[in-house]
Specification:
single chain; flat; about 65% helix
């Protein structure tokens, strides 16, 4: 009977191998987390740049809307207001220019016999 005793040296080698395996697993986990976070960073940077462009466009529109030229443009076009010294011309409708609607003819349906419908169905 032979007994297989493990020596101290073999125990240290097994412990070192387990520690290296654990470190490699931890390194792999950290690398995949880094890749995921890097991808998220790129996506978020693209979103931020889009939002900054939108903010710039909206702020330009707000600045124009608060300007005197926008207010004057609205007042003249949509508010129907005039400036001092302007001569506003309002076209008036001409009397009798409205066309008289003509009567539309009404179509009277004709009564057709059943046999005539079948005849037309087969022979026409």
């Amino acid at each position: 009977m032979k007994f297989c005793w493990i020596t101290k040296k073999q125990i240290w080698i097994i412990l070192i191998a387990l520690a290296v395996a654990g470190l490699l697993i931890d390194l792999n986990t950290r690398i995949s987390t880094l890749k995921y976070l890097t991808d998220q960073k790129v996506t978020l940077e693209a979103d931020v740049s889009k939002l900054e462009a939108t903010l710039e466009a909206v702020s330009e529109k707000i600045d124009y809307a608060n300007s005197d030229t926008a207010v004057e443009e609205w007042a003249r076009q949509q508010g129907l207001m005039m400036k001092e010294g302007d001569h506003v011309i309002i076209p008036l409708p001409v009397e009798g220019a409205t066309p008289v609607p003509s009567a539309t003819p009404t179509v009277v349906p004709t009564q057709v016999e059943n046999w005539q419908v079948w005849r037309d169905f087969f022979f026409k």
